[in-house]
């Protein structure tokens, strides 16, 4: 488990032992229906009636697989090898092991009558099978449309018609102290509703690459991940993602991804298959946190403000650099909106696209300045990034045969069967080459290579660095462009 000041757990449900060690346990939160007059209780029944039919149970299955692993050839070799300084022990031997079948459960929210469902990335990541069960008992097999690990969101699809949906509300309009309900499937208890209030907004916990969580004290437990946070009007305002607890079960706060972030991610996944992320090209932290850290080291600093985002690093090819922003500056506003925390800035930027123009307000040597800049993508331009498929390589593949493994003295790999026009031919890779690594990842199957291509194609450096071996036994490596 990744530890923050307390345990942070992904409430992905009754998780198999292998999944229970996930760094975060995702959660769910939701809200009531009609605001009450001051001093009167809030009626949450309307919101519950709207939300329950649209919140689904998701069953995750990862099938058993055979893997080859390195194990010490002898525990005595390891002991005496280390004791007498013979390197890293007495060596290793290859052994095939069968991983157990893994199952887990989570939640999701139907956002369209034709079967689009939003959930958390960690609920579906790595699944071989996904089964969606509606509140009325109907079951569907689901396919993954797209995922975004940076925000921990995923979009899946079932083949259905006239499915119950939950209207999407504006999470920006939520107020601290406002009542909400959490709807999901904790501990495999379907259609569970809990109530609480919005405890805080724009929380950043360091769990995802981009986050601006809605914090709630509605009870959230394992299995609520991907469920709905609903306001009193019966509108979806967040996707539950995390639990902050000493025990791993409800005793603290839950955190939901706001719909302002969800809407953009869903739209991009539908249209492009990957999120078109607009960047200003900085790394930094909340100014007050940076100042406090400096004071803890006995340093006296004065940025001219305690609010905003302290700029710790500037990408020389990014939008911020073109505005003249430098390390040590403090960003205090964007498009006229004041920003006090990195989470607030991220929530604004996540709704932008590369090529959009924004006006940044910042302090440079304590002097207030404003500059309009054009946002860029991770590759430093304004083009639409689309996830590349194996087709871009222009080759066909198959797992290396047992006889060839024995011949080459290897235990895994992906053999190139045929090369046509494409990236492999351009790079000089030909028939017979056995791929063993791509961008540092072990390649045992076509799925492994597909994942590496997909990740590289939308990264800042869209290159696949491949290592492998020729039929002659000669080891080789290549740099393959996958734009």
What this model shows, in words?
This protein is α+β, with helices and mostly antiparallel strands and 483 residues long. The chain has eleven helices and 28 strands. It has a seven-stranded antiparallel β-sheet with strand order 8-7-2-5-6-10-9. Strand 14 (228-230) and strand 15 form a beta hairpin.
Approximate helicity band: 10-25%
Structural class: alpha+beta
How many β-strand runs? 28
The Cα radius of gyration reads 25 Å
Shape: globular
**Low-confidence segments:** 1-34, 79-88
Mean pLDDT: 84
Count of helical regions: 11
Strand order of the largest sheet: 8-7-2-5-6-10-9
- Note the gap between the termini: 35 Å
Biggest beta sheet attributes: 7 strands, antiparallel
Strand percentage lies at 25-35%
Task: Give descriptors for this structure.
483 residues, alpha+beta, seven-stranded antiparallel sheet, six-stranded antiparallel barrel, disordered N terminus
